Amino acid sequence: MRSYRDILVSPVGAFITLAGVARLTWGIEALALIVHVEEAADSFAAAGLAVGALGVTSAALAPVRGRLIDRRGRAALVAMTVAVAAVIAAIALTPAAGPGALSYVLLAGLAGIVAPPFSAWTRSGLAHRLGGQRLQLAYTVDNVFEESAFVVGPMLAGALIAIASAGAALVFAAALGLIAGLLLAYAHWAVVWAPPRREPEPGRGGEINRPLLLAIASLGGVGWALGCIEVAVPAFAKAEGAVATAGVAFAALSAGGVIGALIYGARSWQAPASRRYVALLAGLALGTAALALPSSIAALVAVAAAAGLALTPAFVTNSILIEQLSLGSPTAAAFSGTSTAVNGAVAVAAPVAGVLVEGSGTDAAFLAGGAGLSLAALAALALPSTSPSPAAGPESIAEAATVSESRGT
Predict the structure, then answer these.
(1) 3-class DSSP state for residue 94?
(2) Is residue 214 scored above 70 in pLDDT?
(3) N or C end of the chain: which has fewer CB within 10 A?
(4) Would you say residue 404 has pLDDT above 50?
(5) If one looks up domain 2-199+206-407 in CATH, what number appears?
(6) Could you tell me which of 284, 258, 245 has the C-alpha nearest to residue 366?
C-alpha cells in the first residue's frame, strides 16, 4: 500500500482529498433531504418526489454541466458551487407550501440542475497531468473517496439529525460543499491540478467518439444493477423481519468495492483495459445474480461484500477507458456523462425492480440486475482492445505539479 501513501502525501493527494470532502455533501444531503421534507410536509410522498427531482435533474443535465466546466473552467465551478449551496440552504429554511410540498420539489430539482460536477472536475484534471500507473492509482484513490462519501455521509447526517435537526444537516452540507468547492477553485495547491479550459473544435463531433460513447453508456448496466439492488435488499430485509439490516448489506457492498479497488489499483496490469472492464462487469453481474441465493441476512451481507469487490474497480477501469479513448485528454463532459448513464439507469431500474419484487419476489429483482449487467458486459466486448497508455507527461507527481504551476493553470 506504499504507492497509495505516496499518492496521499503528494500534492495531488491534497487535491483528491479536497474533492472527496466536497462529495461528502452528497451523502449528507440524500438522507437529510428525505427526513427534512417528510417532517416539514408530513408526507413521505413529498420526500420521495423531492429526492426524485434532485436525482433526475442532476443525472439528465450532468453532461451540460460538464461542458460548462470545459468551456468556462473555474468560473463555472464557482457559480455552480455557490448556487447549489444557496438552494440547499433554502430547502432547509423554506416552509412547506402547496400540494405535495411543491416548494421542496422545485427547489430540489433546481439543486440537481446546478450541482457542481466535482468528480468530472477532478478526473479530467488528473487525466490531463498524469498517465499510466500513476493515473490508475490516482483514479483508485478518487473512486474510494467517492464510494466512502455514501457510507460516511449518511452516518454524519444521522448524527446531525439526532443532535440538531435534518434542516441543520442540510445547512451543514451546504456550508461544507461551499467551502470545499471554493477551495478547489481558488486554493493554489488545488488550482495547479484543475482541468484546462477547452474551446469547441470544429469537426470533433462534440469530442465524443463511438468507442468513448460505448464506454460511457456501458456504465448504465452498473446503474441498472444498483437500482435493482437498492429496491430488493430492503424488501429482503423486511421479509426477514429486520429492515434496519438493509443498511448493513449496502455498507458491505461499498466496503467490498473499496477493498477490491485498493487491491486492483495497486497492481500493474498487462491485459488491455477494455478486456479487464468486460471481466469486471461480468464478475459484478455474477455477484448481483448471486444475491438471489442467500436465505438469511448474514448470507446476503457476505454475498454483497463479495459482489462489491468488482464494483469500484469497474468504475476505476471505466475512467481509464475514458482517458484512453478520448480525442486528446478527456473532457469534463465525458466524465459527467458517466453520471447520467449510472443515475439514469438507477432511476429506470428502481420502479421495474419494485414491480418484480411485488409480483415475483426479491430473487427476480436480483436476477434482473445481473441480466442487465451481463448485457452491458457483452456490449463492452465491442470496445477496442487498447493497450494501457504509457506513462505520459511528467515522470513524477511532484514534477506534474511543478509543470502545472509553470503553465499558470
Answers:
(1) coil
(2) yes
(3) N
(4) no
(5) 1.20.1250.20
(6) 284
Query: Which residue blocks in 42-131 are alpha helix, DSSP H?
Result: 44-60, 62-72, 74-93, 102-114, 118-129
pLDDT tens per residue, range 73-107: 889 999 999 999 999 999 999 876 665 578 888 99
Nearest in space to 165 (alpha carbons), one of 27, 37, 21: 37
Asked whether 350 and 227 are in contact (CB, 8 A), the reply is yes
Average pLDDT value for residue range 375-388: 83
Domain parsing of the chain, residue ranges: 2-199+206-407
3-state secondary structure 295-341: CCHHHHHHHHHHHHCCHHHHHHHHHHHHHHHCCCCCCHHHHHHHHHH
**Contact present, 365 and 228 (Cβ < 8 Å):** yes
Query: How far, in Å, CA of 363 to CA of 38, rounded?
Result: 31
Question: Is 80 exceeded by the pLDDT of residue 246?
Answer: no
Measured distance CA(208)–CA(326) in Å, rounded? 7
Percent of residues, the chain, with pLDDT higher than 70: 89
What is the number of other CB atoms lying within 10 angstroms of the CB of residue 328?
A: 10
Return the sign of the alpha-carbon dihedral for residues 251, 117, 201, 217.
Answer: positive
How far is 232 from 353, CA to CA, in rounded Å? Answer: 7
- For 43, which DSSP code? -
